Amino acid sequence: MAREGFPFILVSLFIAVGFGIFGIWIGVALFVAVAAFMAYFFRDPERTVPTGEGIVVSSADGRVTRVETTDAGTTVSVFLSPLDVHINRSPIAGNVTNINYIKGKKMPATSDAASFENERNTLTIEGSDGTIQCTQIAGILARRIVCRAKVGDNLARGERFGLIKFSSRTDLLLPADAEVLVKVGDRVRGGETIIAKFAARA
Fold first, then answer.
1. Which of 18, 178, 191, 192 is the most buried (most CB within 10 A)?
2. Global pTM exceeds 0.85
């Protein structure tokens, strides 16, 4: 389980104990259930990271909601519901060359506008096959992006680098010539699902 979940669990259990002292068993049951959900939400399962040259894996669990190519490159957006694993993983092996945090708004993460207006944190990762930007985007609730990586860190493909608490989305900006292997509506798993391949070098 992600360490960020322990405060939520402990506070819920503390409140449950308080209700128990006064014999309010409905309150006890409610906050024990909350603690159990928090333990489930902050789960951090092991993943089998695929090997091979030029592949890009998903940075998050969830559903693909956007695949769009513009002058900047191809964006693949993954929406994470409260039931998805919320750990973020590096899509490629590479060096973190820049991290840009923007305070932003609190629009629903299901909206494509959230990619441009919400609280977000963008990591630029340079690998041997190319450069990718991975953006953690918060949703409508309180600000809650966690990024453990720092500029200069070398991340392995599929390595954990942070999480977003509660519903959110993760965007990957790929080179425009990358071969995207997923489509809108697909379910993906962070660190496991291959979502794209870099174009072969001449």
1. 191
2. yes
Q: Strand, helix or coil at 154? A: strand
Q: Torsion angle of alpha carbons 180, 114, 154, 3, nearest 10°?
A: -120
Is 115 labeled as catalytic in the residue annotation? no
Which residue in 12, 90, 115, 168 is the catalytic one? 168
3-state secondary structure at position 6: helix
pLDDT tens string 20-76 = 998 899 999 999 999 998 888 889 999 999 999 999 999 999 999 999 999 999 999
Mean per-residue pLDDT, 5-22: 89
Is 202 a member of any domain? no
Q: For residue 46, tell me if it sits in a domain.
A: no
Whether residues 162 and 98 fall in one domain? yes
What Å distances lie between residue 142 and 36, 108, 165, CA to CA? 21, 12, 9
Angle between helix axes 6-21 and 25-41 (nearest 10 degrees) is 170
Range of the domain at 171: 55-197
